[in-house]
Amino acid sequence: MTGTLFLIPNTLGDTESLSHVIPEHVQATTAGLVNFVAENAKTARAFLKLVGANYPLARPMQEIRISELNVNTPPAALKGLLEPLLAGEDAGLLSEAGVPAVADPGADLVRLAHQHNIPVRPLVGPSSLLLAVMASGLNGQSFAFNGYLPTDAALRTKRLKELEIRSRHEKQTQLFIETPYRNGAMLEAITASCHGTTLVCVATDISLPGEAIHTMTVAQWKSQLGAGKTPDFHKKPTVFLILGQ
């Protein structure tokens, strides 16, 4: 019999209280595991330390096994990460931020687990994408996540126009994310590329003390930019949502 792969959500950043965003049963389940797969072992240990402050860990920290899975992990190494599970031990897949396997390299491991008939149990926790959709006021009945847009200015503009057309024709909210140092350029590109009536939501620091979520038309965002009243989001991961009107 194989073990179970638990998909363990992480916080979206430094939070005032772990229990505000990670349910108690998720913390308790996490504390009972001794095998983990994570993007970064150091940050995984930091998360486990927070969990351990509320629930005793099953083993001392130095005895907990953490294997890394990130963009540098070769596909051939994935099966080796499943060895504890194939041997009958439970394991946790821990995201760097938010929920595992969504905009996260863990999806490949989850797919391989299914191929080996390993039970997969997703645990409840914060997803910046779903929280942004909830708070945006845009269409939550039909939406699509598009990851990161091109960094090249011309390609980014082309992609934005494609997403705007799709959102208008299908009445579908289009989501994408951006790194902190490119947030300003992204908002400027949106206001320069999209129609004035298109709705745009900018969501930063979701579930954290500095949370800010604003939905306005492109014309209104352009006015904000002109007045120097843009959000203070240049050092924060951001979710953008657009819906053509």
UniProtKB/TrEMBL annotation:
Alphabetical keyword list: Cytoplasm, Methyltransferase, rRNA processing, S-adenosyl-L-methionine, Transferase
Origin superkingdom: Bacteria
Zinc-finger is among the record's keywords: no
Xref: InterPro entries: 4pyrrol_Mease (IPR000878), 4pyrrol_Methylase_sf (IPR035996), 4pyrrole_Mease_sub1 (IPR014777), 4pyrrole_Mease_sub2 (IPR014776), rRNA_ssu_MeTfrase_I (IPR008189)
GO BP annotations listed: methylation; rRNA processing
GO molecular-function term, one example from the UniProt record: methyltransferase activity
Domain (Tetrapyrrole methylase): residue spans on this chain: 37-220
The protein's name in its UniProt record: SAM-dependent methyltransferase
